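Need a sequence for this fold. Nothing fancy.
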């Protein structure tokens, strides 16, 4: 699995499409875009979920899609929201990102369309 993280509109989706098309042995990889939004949806469906369940959700995705290219916005940067649910979402996205990064074969950070390999 490949994880591409970065701020909004930094070129993650285009990089994911390129990496997916250049899969090993000519096999195209699946692209899972905007994983941070899947975390938000998971929180809405499971309002009691804590760190353990969020990490398990991310781990399940990594295990079920071992060759995927996953994109995820960095949502923890910037001003801390006053809204409690938004702060909870940021924490959950952070836990999910950590889990995916730990399981990924490579991790990229996108900034201004420039990919930087960090793992």
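Here you go.
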């Amino acid at each position: 699995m490949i994880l591409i993280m970065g701020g909004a509109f930094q070129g993650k989706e285009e990089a994911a499409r390129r990496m997916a098309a250049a899969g090993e042995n000519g096999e195209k990889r699946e692209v899972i875009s905007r994983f941070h939004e899947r975390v938000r949806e998971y929180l809405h469906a499971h309002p009691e979920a804590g760190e353990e369940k969020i990490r398990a959700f991310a781990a399940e995705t990594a295990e079920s899609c071992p060759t995927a290219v996953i994109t995820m916005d960095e949502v923890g940067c910037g001003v801390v929201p006053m809204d409690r649910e938004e702060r909870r979402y940021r924490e959950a996205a952070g836990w999910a990102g950590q889990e995916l990064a730990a399981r990924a074969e490579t991790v990229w950070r996108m900034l201004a369309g420039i990919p930087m390999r960090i793992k």
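For context: Strands lie at 2-6, 31-32, 69-73, 106-111, 114-117.
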